[in-house]
Design a protein that fits this description.
Layout lengths: L2 E6 L5 E6 L3 E8 L5 E8 L7 E6 L5 E7 L5 E8 L7 E8 L2 E2 L1 E6 L6 E8 L2 E9 L5 E7 L1
Antiparallel strand pairs: 1-2, 3-4, 4-5, 5-6, 6-7, 7-8, 8-9, 8-10, 10-11, 11-12, 12-13
Length: about 140
């Protein structure tokens, strides 16, 4: 089985997560009520949940998608979604050693316009962060060291 996942983000940004390997199966974890809590696209390496992980809210909507290695450490792109109302993109960015690292973009739930553009370094805010109102108008910026 070939695993190939594509995530399309707003702003015309396209991120492709491609993993080609022999997959054992899609591993699933469940909430006590039987609804899916998390799925792993499991890749044959020590039989662990490496690859694309999808997290679900209790209402069944996708909450987050991320890439983890065979040690369960998040490394690579992630995207998070609003789970109330329309299941819209809330933010995207990347992890390094399970900490947010690199550029992050968040979106207003009601309009889908950019809310914040910022940067993380080793899980902490760094550099210039820009805030926008729900109509996409620049509001302010802040510098983090």
């Amino acid at each position: 089985m070939r695993l190939k996942k594509h995530l399309l983000f707003s702003l015309g940004l396209f991120l492709s997560i491609s993993v080609t390997a022999q997959a054992q199966a899609v591993k699933k974890d469940y909430y006590p009520d039987g609804k899916v809590k998390r799925t792993f696209d499991v890749i044959t390496k020590n039989g662990k949940g490496a690859g694309l992980v999808t997290l679900f809210a209790k209402n069944g909507k996708i909450n987050q998608m991320q890439v983890v290695n065979d040690q369960g450490i998040a490394n690579g792109p992630f995207s998070a979604f609003y789970t109330q109302g329309a299941n819209k993109l809330q933010m995207f960015g990347s992890f390094k050693n399970s900490k947010v690292d690199g550029r992050i973009v968040t979106f207003h739930q009601d309009t889908g316009n950019i809310e914040v553009v910022g940067f993380y370094r080793n899980g902490k805010k760094a550099g210039k962060w820009m805030l926008y109102d729900k109509n996409g108008k620049f509001v302010k910026s802040k510098i983090y060291n």
